[in-house]
Amino acid sequence: MNRYVLALLFVTLVWGATFPVLKLATAHLTGVEISALRFLIAAACMAPWAWSATRAAWRVGGVLGALVLVSYVAQAWGLEHISSNRSAFLTSLNVLMVPLLGVLFGTRLSWVMLAAALMACIGIGFMSWDGGSHLLADTATAAGALAYALYVILLSKRAKHFSARELAATQIVWMATLGTLWMLASSVGTDALQTLAQRADASVWLGLAYLGVVATSGMLFLQAMAQRHVSADKAALVYAMEPVFAALFAALWLNEWLTPTAVFGAVMVVVAVVLSEWKTARS
Asked: What is the mean pLDDT of residues 182-187?
């Protein structure tokens, strides 16, 4: 296993730890507020590299940042209504969506991919029977997975043309700007901004610092660096480990244990995404 794949594996480990952190934060803040604040913290870390970035990097970073913003906000909002385990496995569908979206770029879809897609859908059905389903939250989380699948494809196509630092920095600044505007717009007519400091205690700010410094600025940099050398399909295979790490952290941190039915459905989802990517990687 080369160092770039190992770097992406470390990224998925850090991502897995974000689910319980987000879950705890949603008890005090909305998904939009969490996303805006984490991106502002990350933007402060990456400001020196954003300042020297080229116009082309800003254009590409804007598109990438918008996709990540939609993905993160949808995920954070969904976590207000569903468990971190459920969110992690629904988010993992982006791994399956990457090769499926490849059809739009002329890739031929094999019967293995069709079977894997069906298996994933059945697996989500078993997870939905677990009693923790929420139609809007599930839909929002799946939409976030779709946005992230588009992000992975575009990043693999564009990362080689820019330095990892400037691409990560421009993305994050765009995410912070758009996220802040989104937060301000959503707070119109409410006292959300006035009560923000009261609702966010020390533990929430500690979690936001982790999300901003480590999970956003650090991991977007590692991801931009590694996907210069790893294809979208192979990267997506590594990302299939994210729900495994998320379930581990949720069990240890939040005491969220999957029921046998949910475990069966979750295993089907993971097997489906790994099967589809393993076939693509062999081809």
From this structure: 90
What are the C-alpha distances in Å from 69 to residues 38, 62, 113, 145? Answer: 11, 10, 28, 12
User: Shortest CA distance to 58 belongs to which of 167, 181, 221, 178?
Assistant: 167
Amino acid at 267: V
Taking the alpha carbons of 252, 223, 8, 232 in that order, is the dihedral positive or negative?
Answer: positive
Mind giving me the DSSP string for 264-276?
A: HHHHHHHHHHHHH
pLDDT bin (cut points 50, 70, 90) of residue 37 is very high
| Domain definitions of the chain by residue range | 3-187+194-282
Q: Could you tell me which residues come within 8 angstroms of residue 131 by beta carbon, excluding any fewer than 6 positions away?
A: none
With contact defined as beta carbons under 8 Å apart, do 107 and 232 qualify? no
CA distance 251 to 8: 23
* DSSP 8-state symbol, 102: G
> Long-range contacts for 100-107 (Cβ within 8 Å, ≥24 apart)?
101/149, 101/150, 101/153, 102/153, 102/232, 102/233, 105/153
Model confidence over 107-117: pLDDT tens digits?
666 677 677 76
Place of tokens 């400037």: 166
DSSP summary character for residue 107 = P
